[in-house]
Amino acid sequence: MKIVVAGSSGLIGSRLVERLSHLGHKVIRLRHGELMNSSTESATWNPSASMIDLSQVGQVDAIVNLAGEPIGTSRWTTSKRQRIVESRENGSRILVEAMGKMETPPKCFLNGSAIGYYGDTGDSVVDEDRESGEGFLAEVCIRNEAAAEKATALGVRVVHLRTGIVLAKNGGVLKKQLPLFAIGLGGRLGSGKQHLSWVHIDDEVSGIVFALETEITGPVNLTSPNPVTNSEFTKTLANIMVRPSFLSVPRIALDAVMGAEITQEMLLVSQKVAPKKLVLNGFRFQYPNLEGALRSIISG
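RESULT FIELD:
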């Protein structure tokens, strides 16, 4: 297949491009202002300016959009919130508009979303049938998915990739946690009772490839079938690294460092998400359990 990937330089996107290329697919990396490819094809992409040009790319089989303003890197100021929303909603919208201008639209559009769509689910297990929750991140996902869904009117199969907490050594939460746990400063956040829906980076990429190569459609939860609590996560990681984990970071400290909104919607939110569609469609997780996932990452 000939596949356009937006957000190809990120944690997930870079690994996806590597996997797709290894599988023999022709990958076109869409970046801001240019199209990186070994051929002479070129295009421009600037979601904030609602600008894109895929006219010289030719016919493509699929578009994967993983682009968007980073969410948890800094406080959610008014301008930061605007960038988070617009980078996703505008990106999805202009990609759909570009598809509409193609002589033959791609067969499928895989658009990055997140389990933030569900909001705080407490101790309840939720799957793709669950309605949207409340909060800023839920709003971001709703608007993003609504923009992407319009591609269905073009006859394009649309998949909303609702990703959980991605575990990888060179990015995401583990990149920040591993140095702290290595010196014995790892600890649970708040009460530690909140549920974490995580996924190994290899299963994340495999899940995206699975969605590309099958006829799966609509929202797809990219999470392990075995979520854990924050306390369980902390204890497992500390045991693997043979370090103590008796510390606890109180909410007041999290609020002071990251802001109350990020604390509420990202650090202390409880989300117990099931990958129902992947399982029902025959996807097999390489790392279904946390201990095996963490050991493979730390030893890798």
